[in-house]
Amino acid sequence: MSFAKISWAMLGSFTALAVCVPAANATNGYFAHSYGTRSKALAGASTGFAQDAIVSAINPAGLAYVGDRLDLEFELFSPHREYRVNGAGMLATGSVESDSEYFPVPTLGWSYKLDAEQTLGLAMYGNGGMNTDYKPLVNGNGLFSGANGTFGAGRTGIDMAQAFIVGTYAHSFAKGRYALGISPIFAAQTFKARGLNTFGQFGFSSEPDHLSDQGRDYSFGAGFRVGGLAELTPGLRLGASYKSRIYMSKFERYSGLFAQGGGFDIPDSFNVGLSWDVSKALTANFDVEHIRYSEIKSVGNTFQGNLLGHADGRGFGWNDMTIYKAGVQWQQSPDWIWRGGLSYGQQPIEGSEVLFNILAPGVQEWHLTGGLSHALSKQDELSFAFMYSPQKTITGPNPLSPGQSIDLSMSQFSLQFGWTRRF
Question: Where is the signal peptide, in residue numbers (predicted)?
Fold first, then answer.
């Protein structure tokens, strides 16, 4: 069987597996802090530094430099989510932790050089997601007095996962000094919510029958990413990429929850990065990423507004994010490579938006990362990355219960393993 047929068969099997695996990878808002084991170990500082076939998820131009290869990876991601209510009122006082703290996330990348200048590739990865799962504890005084669950409607939470299949064409120029790449993106989302029906009973939704507890719904859409990579001087590279807004079909079962009758497009984002070979063994990288959450009404609109599900309905009130990333790679020997990184981005949630963001407490800011690669042979390599994001807490008033405040907290860690076969 030819290499192409083997790769397509593996892609089909891997995609089928991924559809069955929930992803919850909310780090920079609900985007992953990066894609691919090597990049994740560098805290995502990889726009100007291509190392594997998964680089097309960051900068498709980088695919021109990675050769013929297959990258199979698996991440175990663990977020710890918690909210705390202070003061008597609508919600029960005290702390509540979310269940479901471990999530498997597969990733795949494949690249094939057509000739010395042209490369084709495929990648499959998750863009994160949001997940909360709060037990149905007895509520406090006020609006939901005596009822079970965070909002008085039983077990409460949401589960959103996003998966992407990306094809890439990359072309290098001037004997490899420059490269351009383009990637059509095909996206799928899955979502379910429970424990929110009381918002419909109290007149907060335009379609209360499509607000909560409607089972799992699916959404599909498409967009693109373009990128460029240039060697400014020997050993100094500049990379840049842009991912378009991905227009998704609506979550019809939840047309009373998300603005625009169930709309939940994926926002556009920009990446710029520098990579500098300080020496033959040491490479330093610095990236900036900007994500425009505010452009998506379901995410960017504040909770103080029109009804849930309305064309300009209430949302989570998220701001745009700008993330700064730095990573260093040291090649100790031909067989061993070590990596470390650090990133920071101000979390997107205002204190005034804490009530609805109990469902999606994407408050992380700092990410500490590290990892390594070990060559088993000229063809095979194993890689490893870890990430730790320390606990971040934001506090704000409950807009529906004067005198009551809410703390949202989250911390995270992940372990990712990768196997590479070069051809």
Answer: 1-18
- Dihedrals φ, ψ of 219, to 5°? -145, 145
Report the sign of the C-alpha dihedral through residues 373, 374, 375, 376, in that order.
negative
**Which amino acid belongs to residue 375?**
A
Residue 182: how many other CB atoms lie within 10 Å: 16
Q: In whole angstroms, what is the distance from residue 199 CA to residue 193 CA?
A: 13
Asked: is 3-422 a CATH 2.60.40.1080 domain? The reply is: no
Q: Per-residue pLDDT tens, the chain, 423 aa: give them.
A: 444 444 444 444 444 444 444 445 568 998 999 999 999 999 999 999 999 999 999 999 999 999 999 999 999 999 999 999 999 888 888 899 999 888 899 999 999 999 999 999 999 998 766 789 998 876 665 566 667 889 989 899 999 999 999 999 999 999 999 999 999 999 999 999 999 999 998 899 999 999 999 999 999 999 999 999 999 999 999 999 999 999 999 999 999 999 999 999 999 999 999 999 999 999 999 999 999 999 999 999 999 889 999 999 999 999 999 999 999 999 999 999 999 999 999 999 999 999 999 999 999 999 999 999 999 999 999 999 999 999 999 999 999 888 899 999 999 999 999 999 999
Please give the model's pTM, rounded to 2 decimal places. Answer: 0.93
In the 8-state DSSP scheme, what is residue 211? S
State the amino acid at position 60 in one-letter form: P
Interatomic CA distance for residues 260 and 119, integer angstroms: 40
**Is residue 265 classed as helix, strand or coil in its secondary structure?**
coil
Rg of the chain (C-alpha set)? 22
